[in-house]
Fold these 2 entries.
Entry 1:
Amino acid sequence: MKRNALSVLFIGLMCLLFSLQGYSKGKKNPFPSDIHVIIIGFDGWGSYCMPKAEMPVVKRMMAQGCWTLKKRSVLPSKSAPNWASMFMGASPEIHGYTQNNKNAEIPSMVVSENNVFPTVSQLLRKQKENVEIGLFYQWKGLNYVVDTLSINHASYLPIRRRKDWYTEINDSACKYIREKNPSLCTIIYNYPDRYGHANGFDSNEYYESLKVLDKCLDVIIQAVDDAGFLDKSIFIVTSDHGGIGKTHGGKTLKEMETPFVIFGNNIKKGFEISDSMMQYDIAATIAYIFGLDVPQAWIGRPVKTVFEKIRKK
Ligand SMILES: [Zn+2]
């Protein structure tokens, strides 16, 4: 009797130990260890346009995920400083990229061994094994802010035909996603910005291009589904700046407020983010998803309110 009782107690204790281990593991990392993050950027997509914009896929993502229309650009509200901040988790005073088509105008406060301010791609490359990182973009100016040494596949795809400006980037990115199962893949379209400058940031052409971009989202999501990792993915759809008249770069909210939409694994559904959010918080949010340590020079903070479960350290 005594021996039996001891055996039962022993087995019971072992079961408790195993279940506690599993519990604490689950609590520590609420994301799958092979999580994928897909970032889709629409250059010049300002929040002001959303009431008029016909973007059913974006609106579906908002209903199935989290969003804010009040994320702010860094100043000046131009492309390079803002895409740089999205990758670099810091503001232009820190990373130094203040103008388009230039190297860091102010010396970066910190420079990594890749000779560039630390990017989220670089943190991922250094801190995780066997990661595949891809980038597809249509604007040449991104060449200055991209840390190519940390990226497996960086593809600049200039727009050759104005009629179907989205085909080449979609085809290349989708092929890559299906073949390489990237951990991190960023796709940045040069629209609606081009129509903003040519026809106006409130023009019919601007809104027409948003309809096309919205369809591109479905194409990318389909590629992820085909590749078989849709349920282990988080999608981020966002922008660098908005616009006013036929320009941007200034301090109006039409130029500075841009959407941030996130949906997928471990993301709350139908939740509007009320926290303040800046462009450089995107980098911090991606780093948080992957569980990366970030450099002291980063000032971005992860938007933790979007996650169903958060990391317990
Ligand atoms: Zn831009």
Note: The longest helix spans residues 2-28.
Entry 2:
Amino acid sequence: MDFTDPSASALYEAVVRSGGDLVVGLDFDGTLAPIVEDPTRAHVHPEVPDLLVALSEVVRGVAVVTGRPVRQALALGDLDQVGSRINDLHRSFLVLGQYGNERWTAVDRRVVSPRPPAGLAGFLREVPSLVRRAGAPDAYVEPKGLAVALHTRRLDDPAGSFARLLPLVTDAAARHGLAVEPGRLVVEVRAPGMHKGLSVRRLAEEWSAKGFLFAGDDLGDVEAFTELRAMRTEGVATMAVCSHGGDGPEELEELADLVVDGPDGVVELLRALVHDLS
Ligand SMILES: [Mg+2]
């Protein structure tokens, strides 16, 4: 890898030195798969499946950590197949869905999930009136089992609709004891107390990580980046990689050690990592 920033280069070298004790965590949308109009068609970059298998052979473990339900990520990423190939190699791969609330491992190959949060049913009953009041009655409502996501991407005025909807949703979520997770033209309402930062921390503990590289592109990845900073002060070699797709949040870029050009850039970095660790 050619790094223009010398500090990124030094962090990358430290991550490479952690070798077989390195954990790689990867967000799904905007990181492994391009952001598309229809989220049910967000298929991974074509090189991703082989790359994940190759990566698993040279690091301690590979995890996909996403806001999506596990089953969607498995289907869109061909990750079930990736998991069985990695399992055949006796290496470690898992998928954490809904920010870590759902867990799927290549060994067990089933989704372990808590019950939906208590306030979710009451919140769902309010959704039709919320979207009407926001002037966004046609917002796409995506039930996710443990959460619900409201998308304005396909509306005539996506940004305006989102700006009107967000405060109404935030208020209603709070009344039902739920947390909001705003993203790009989407807000998700879910149980409080779980985020990608916690997922990163638990992965590091589970796999006794001496290095941790995490790549993400959106607000939901901020906690993961923050956790990596904390882990670095504890002596873990960490690298936070922002997959920049053009309209990602500045907040994430500011926390990033390296900014790459969307899923193509992530793939290039992972390819280099496999090469440098082999
Ligand atoms: Mg993402």
Note: The chain has a mean pLDDT of 94.
